[in-house]
Amino acid sequence: MTNVTALIAESTWAILTYEEAWKSYINSYVIAKNDAFVLIDSHLRKHRPYFQQALAEIGVKPERIGYVYFTHRHADHIGNADLFPSRHNWIHLDDYYELDDFSQTLFGHTFTGSGGDLPLLQFRHLPFHTEGSVAFFDPDTKVCFVGDHLSFFARPAERVVDYGAELRESWRQFLLRWKEQEPEKAAGMAEGLEMLLGWPIERLATGHGTVLSGDIAPFLQELIALARQP
């Protein structure tokens, strides 16, 4: 398995690094918007060389980075936050509070609430994976960056963007098992997915692995129904 960078929508790229220890891809995203770049997440620190290489190949110059948004505080998503000036780095306040003192210095902006508008993107607070996990939405491309609320950790990614029939089925089966074993977590998962239905999502950019394309709302509705059925 190798690292890969791919265009996933108009002026939107996915950067996938492969972590051998986890047998999993880790995703970040780059959006070219209004003559500037928006970055979402930043991989593990150990993946810095490829992350920087990918940014350079896309054409991301430091002076043109306007915003760096983080879906949540875990190390595989904020591992390279120090590459960027703190004034560019944004994280939800509930996750900011969970960071150590040094890590807090990397973030010059926090935001709070259940959802709303940020510069260039919209967000929803999905406090399921971490206290401050969020999803971001680009209304121009209709791509939703959902972080680890729904992802394909330790799953193969034959194509970066795919309908992903087998991946969808794996989530259905996983959620059914989860509902039996940890019903409170399954309910929390469904609650977050329900919050995403207000967006007209065409592609679901996950925190790990394949970006799903097509029939996103029906898929989310199906997962919600599975989690809540008697």
From TrEMBL:
One protein family per Pfam: Lactamase_B
SUPFAM superfamilies: Metallo-hydrolase/oxidoreductase
PANTHER family xrefs: METALLO-BETA-LACTAMASE DOMAIN-CONTAINING
Organism expressing this protein natively: Brevibacillus thermoruber
Domain Metallo-beta-lactamase, first and last residues per copy: 25-208
Classification via InterPro entries: Metallo-B-lactamas, NDM-1-like, RibonucZ/Hydroxyglut_hydro
Reaction(s) catalysed (UniProt annotation): 3',5'-cyclic UMP + H2O = UMP + H(+); 3',5'-cyclic CMP + H2O = CMP + H(+)
Protein name: MBL fold metallo-hydrolase
